[in-house]
Each structure stands twice: as C-alpha cells, then as structure tokens.
Amino acid sequence: MAGPLSIAVKSYPHTAFLTDPAFTAGGRPVSVDAADPIYRAFAPMVRELRYDVSELAIATFLQAHEAGAPIALLPVVLSGDFHHHSLTRWPGSPEIAPGDLAGRRIGVRAYSQTTGLWVRGILQEEYGLDAKDVTWVTTEEPHVAEYVEPPNVERTTGKLLEVLRRGDVSAAVLGPPALDSAEGPLVPIIPDWRAAEEAWGVRHGTVPINHMLTVRRDLLEREPQVVTDLYQAFGTRIEERKAAEDGPRVRALRFGVTDELVAGLQVAIDYALQQNVIRTPVTVAELLGDFA
C-alpha cells in the first residue's frame, strides 16, 4: 500500500481539512509538513522535490519552470493580496516619494520574493521607476539554485526589519506575514495606497497572486486520481471560504482556470520578464498546460 502523501502548506482556514485523519486523496492519507514560515519549504521543493505537493510562491514557480524543474502548477491560489502598502519606511525616517527612489537602496528578503515582484511592477507601471535603477538589498538567496540575480542586487546580513531600522536602506518591501508581525507601525511610502490598490485591481481584473499549489510531475502522471481528489478538496474549501468572508486576501483565492487567475498569471509573467526575475518568455497556457 502506498504511503502518505507529503504536503507542505501553511495553515489557512482553507487548508485545515488536510489535518483531518479521515481525509484521503485517491485512497492515500496525507502527511502535512507545517513549515514555518512556509517559504522555508520552497527551496527543498524546487531543488530536491522533497514533497509530493507544495504551496509555492508564483515567482519561485516561474523560475523553477524556466529551470526545467519537474513540477506542475495546479490552478489553485492559496494566498494573495494587494501590495501597494508593502513598500514601507521606518517611522521617523526621511519621507520619500515613490518616484524619487531611483538611485536608492531598497530592502527585500530576496530579489525573487513574490511581494517584491509585485512592488517593483507597481513602481514601474505607476511611477516609471525601473527595477534596474534601484539597488536591491537582500537577506536571502533565491529558492531556485540556477537563477542568477541582476548585478544591482546585494546581499546583507540580519533580519530585513533590522536592516530598515538601522537605516541601511531607504525603504523595504515586506510580505503579508512580515507586515502583520512587525512591531510598531511602519509607514507606507505609496500615498493613498488603499485607493491605489483598488484601482490596480480594477485595471488588471485580479488581485495579485502570492502562493499557488504545485505537484511533482511524476505524481501527476502516475496517480492522476490522487491529484484530482486533492484539487477538488482544495476547491471546495476555497469556495466555502469565499462565500463566507470578504477582503482582498480572500478575494485573491482562486480555484479553476478563471479569468481572474489568467489575468493574475499574465501580469506576474509580464512583471517577471521586465525585472529579469525570469528571462525566457512563457505563456499562461504553458503554465496551465495540464489543466487546459
């Protein structure tokens, strides 16, 4: 009898069903790896195929796909949010307008971090600030070992909030968990960011994608019913949550190949190519080829 499926996902309301001992997929039980923070599971997934199924940041998946990793993308969005408010400065630090960040240093956990992808895209699209005109100060390497960072990316030591606090950077990009756990109020740099976020959503017809669900290609090919059962189970919980809650983070959740999912993936691809996060053009149809 086949052993349990290894699954790496964060604990969300729409993933709680995985911890139910009675849940099976294709007759197989599941074993959940509660990596905390979840991005600690991403490098092992793309470098070692450590898990059968894994939550994965969309920027990491784009890079892994470019590198030829045998991982398939399921049309399931596990997390997302608007990100105009993710570009911050330390309280009491000099005020700076988004358009004046050219030539400055901006901190981000990794150049390939998905929140950074969205923020750089916003700065380019709305303020004409090209990613190459900023020095990106990072604290971690990319998840995909084959990826070569642009020359304007530097590595430093310490936590990103400490780098920001000590003034080594003019601003920092923080993902939703880091923003939620920050001690004290950081100052968003983009003015009237709530209205700007909603305007971005109207313009693009989606909420930015952060993390999606991926599966080892050999599992998909060998045991398609297992993947189908998982896919349907995630979809049921996502639809239940969307029916009960509101807000950008819930609106971002997706199940199935919808117009909103296609729009979100297309903008992510466009931004990634602009910023040299990936260097090989790819289509949404290619990414979702297993579910066309």
Q: Main β-sheet, in a few words?
A: 7 strands, mixed
Give the proportion of residues in helices: 25-40%
Q: What is the helix/strand order? A: EEEHEHEEEHEEHEHEHEHHHEHH
Number of strands: 13
Tell me the span between the first and last alpha carbons.
32 Å
Strand order of the largest sheet: 2-3-1-4-12-5-13
CATH superfamily of the largest domain: Periplasmic binding protein-like II
CATH architecture of the largest domain: 3-Layer(aba) Sandwich
What number of structural domains do the residues give? 2
Provide a count of the helices. 11
Radius of gyration: 19 Å
What would the CATH topology of the largest domain be?
A: D-Maltodextrin-Binding Protein, domain 2
Coarse structural class: alpha/beta
Label the overall shape: globular
Can you tell me about this structure?
This protein has 292 residues and is an alpha/beta fold. It folds into two domains: 163 residues, D-Maltodextrin-Binding Protein, domain 2; 119 residues, D-Maltodextrin-Binding Protein, domain 2. The protein has eleven helices and 13 strands. A seven-stranded mixed sheet has the order 2-3-1-4-12-5-13, with helices on both faces. Strands 9-8-7-10-6-11 form a six-stranded mixed sheet. Strand 7, helix 3 and strand 8 form a beta-alpha-beta unit. Helix 3 crosses helix 10. The longest helix has 21 residues. The mean pLDDT is 96.
Topology:
Blueprint: E1 5-8, E2 24-25, E3 28-33, H1 42-48, E4 53-57, H2 58-67, E5 71-80, E6 87-89, E7 105-108, H3 114-127, E8 135-138, E9 153-155, H4 160-165, E10 171-173, H5 176-181, E11 187-188, H6 193-204, E12 209-216, H7 217-222, H8 224-244, H9 248-251, E13 254-255, H10 259-274, H11 284-287
Parallel strand pairs: 1-3, 1-4, 7-8, 7-10, 8-9
Antiparallel strand pairs: 2-3, 4-12, 5-12, 5-13, 6-10, 6-11
